[in-house]
Design a protein that fits this description.
By secondary structure, this protein is mainly alpha-helical. It has a single domain, classed as Cytochrome Bc1 Complex, Chain C. A hairpin with a 2-residue loop joins strand 3 and strand 4. The protein contains 17 helices and five strands.
Length: 383
């Protein structure tokens, strides 16, 4: 008995290879053979690279605040990674840039699904799991932001978590649950670290498995309306108009190479710096959350906190429940004019809020932007 036969009897290699062949030749719609449909794979590869680089960082990271004064072990370990460990700066920058690109790619993937109406029946659950992946990815960024324990990361977390505080009802309780106390402390760091390296990776891995299973089981949505696809039958449509998935593999591989190359390039050319050690008694000016939280950060400045939180939650609810709210069977963007117009307004508003959040409390040339992002002539210029 050869080694292959011995392994086949125990591992079922023949069944495994047969399954792979079936998946490679399983047809996909012709319109799916473009680079917009490779974003899901790019997000998956970025997640895998985050796990790999995160393991290397965790091996040298100390999740402790110590006495919380001049020596913070968490900060010292990140400084050691950045300046002492060979290629530590590169791994840390690769991990940091990868997190930003992963959020960007997941958002673009979500928009692509919306554009093609691929969330409609019978793919409602695929959309729900995809939203879960988006929220898990954003939470990854939120929990990982605190770990370096420099001034920016510490006070950025304070600003973000304060959004939950002072809300009527459960506001303080929710904030204390997140922080592990009244303020950012060693308990907060421990909770964020456990979430970042244990709970979130396991959760995201489960969501990815469910999401991919549904994508392969139900297939990529055709351009036909829900009614036409049901009438003709998805398998019949693919038999007549589909192309083998293997023909799409080239674009998948190309996108993965481009994304990983971009991550390495950004890490080399623009390495992430480590700021001064976190000092709770010294609030730096203009501290803000990451770019993907800026629209939420900014909208809370224009409304009372409760109203702002309700608006944000309402927007999230509409996004998650979209397959059940949009009853139009058409998938073509041109036949969903009202929804596409509403989405364009929402997208422009989100970009505007993010831009205002970025500009707020900054000076550009002779203009100073206040906390709401409104420009004013600088004091010396006004004189």
């Amino acid at each position: 008995m050869g080694l292959r036969s011995w392994l086949d009897d125990r591992l079922g290699l023949t069944l495994f290879s047969q399954f792979n062949r079936e998946q490679l030749h399983k047809p996909v719609p012709k319109h799916a053979s473009n680079y917009a449909f490779t974003l899901g794979t790019a997000a998956l590869v970025l997640f895998m690279s985050q796990v790999g680089s995160g393991i290397l960082l965790a091996l040298n990271y100390s999740c402790s605040l110590g006495d919380g004064q001049e020596n913070i072990p968490a900060y010292s370990s990140v400084r050691n990674i950045t300046f002492e460990i060979p290629a530590g700066w590169l791994i840390r920058s690769f991990h940091a840039w990868g997190s930003h690109l992963m959020v960007l790619v997941v958002l673009l993937h979500l928009f692509r699904v919306f554009w093609y109406g691929a969330y409609k029946k019978p793919r409602e659950l695929t959309w729900l799991f995809g939203c879960g992946l988006l929220f898990a990815t954003l939470t990854f960024g939120f929990t990982g932001y605190l770990l370096p324990m420099d001034q920016v990361s510490y006070w950025g977390t304070v600003v973000a978590t304060n959004s939950f505080m002072d809300l009527p009802g459960l506001g303080d309780r929710v904030g204390q649950t997140i922080l592990g106390g009244e303020s950012v402390s060693g308990a907060t760091l421990s909770r964020f670290f456990i979430l970042h390296v244990l709970i979130l990776p396991a959760s995201l891995l489960g969501l990815v498995a469910l999401h991919l299973y549904l994508v392969r089981r139900l297939g990529i949505a055709t351009r036909e309306s829900v009614t036409v696809e049901q009438h003709r039958g998805y398998e019949n449509v693919m038999h007549q108009e589909g192309v083998p998935f293997s023909k799409h593999m080239f674009r998948e591989v190309t996108t993965v190479i481009v994304v990983l190359s971009a991550t390495v390039t950004l890490a080399v050319l623009f390495p992430f710096e480590l700021g001064p050690i976190a000092t709770p008694g010294e609030t730096p000016k203009g501290v803000k959350p990451e770019w993907y939280f800026l629209p939420i950060y900014q909208i809370l400045k224009y409304f009372p906190k409760l109203v702002g939180i309700l608006l944000v939650n309402a927007g999230i609810a509409v996004l998650v429940l979209l397959p059940f709210l949009d009853r139009n069977p058409e998938r073509s963007p041109g036949r969903r004019k009202f929804l596409m117009s509403a989405a364009a307004v929402a997208l422009l508003a989100t970009f505007a809020l993010g831009l205002l959040g970025y500009l707020s409390e900054r000076r550009i040339g002779r203009w100073e932007f206040d906390i709401r992002g409104v420009p004013h002539r600088a004091a010396e210029e006004a004189k």
